[in-house]
Amino acid sequence: MFSGKRLTLARDRRGLTGIQLSELSGITAVTISRLESGQTKQPDDETIARLAGALRYPGDFFFKAAPEELDDNTVSFRSLKKMSAKQKNAALGAGSLGLELYDLVENDYHLPEPNVPEFSGGHEPYVAARLVRQHWGLGDRPIGNVLRLLESRGVRVLSLEESNKNVDAFSFWRKGKPFVFLNTFKTAEHSIFDCGHELGHLCLHKHAGPRSIKSAEMEANMFASSFLMPEHDVKAAIPHRLISVKTIIASKIRWKVSAMALTVRLHQLEMLSDWQYRSMCIDLGKLGYRSSEKIGVVREKSVLWQKILADLWSKKLTKEDLGKKLGFPYDEVERLIFQLAGDVPVPSPQKVQLKEVPKA
What we know:
Layout: H1 4-13, H2 18-25, H3 29-37, H4 45-55, E1 76-77, H5 85-108, H6 125-135, H7 146-152, E2 156-159, E3 169-174, E4 177-182, H8 188-204, H9 214-228, H10 231-237, H11 245-255, H12 259-268, H13 274-286, H14 303-314, H15 319-326, H16 330-336
Parallel strand pairs: 2-4
Antiparallel strand pairs: 1-3, 3-4
């Protein structure tokens, strides 16, 4: 049966209004509206072909079961205020597609079970960050690869290749499993901080309901700062009395964060006075560090997706085949794992060793 919700999902993913889709497809806006609402249950073949062509989705996509829609009250968006409704719907649509992708993957592979502590209340973010580090046995040292750490603790990570800076990242729990979507359009440092920020939401706000409130974002930011840049390590690595812009730029590499993020952390730890903090921010802004990192770090890659794609490749399957199996257009699969897998190794079938796979 034709699914109006899948038509809405595909339209949202392409960032189109009903009128824009009407203009592209030659189908009236009224017909599209009736299809999406379910008032028209079975369009003719020509209508389906026109909609599929305009949306660049396979026709079969619209005949799968209705997609699982994410409740935006349970999703933690990194930057809700800056998003338009169109961008928000597109991001939520990516979340729905991502769930289907992970459902397919988990049919064939044993992924790490979730091991993410939850703090339902009463913990300051910096305390929660320290407890998570203790729970995971991290000590106070910098984390070598935050993305891989999250994956190893059972967090399902996907990409939001939305080509805009208004959607930072978002996270949510689904059936006891934590999901994080990262906007890999941003700098590597920004994505690392987003990992910490979304981990904060997962740990602190699982049962908190709507989380667009400013205090929840501030808590997640404080959690990320404390988790990525532990107090003892920062104070041991940076001379208290000799902090300069040059020091910050050189030191940020240790924790793989942005210069601005480290500056904020130094201010939180009272290693910079209010005046010094404002001056540092102004100077870093003049050097272009508000929008980019002049001395950047290498983007972290997903070991999980590297292994999965390598295993698929060993079976002579590609991301395009994965898309066909899901009923997705190829570009949606590409966007969900964009920049996560990097250059996938191409081992011989005999050398594939994937601990999480296969079930059968």
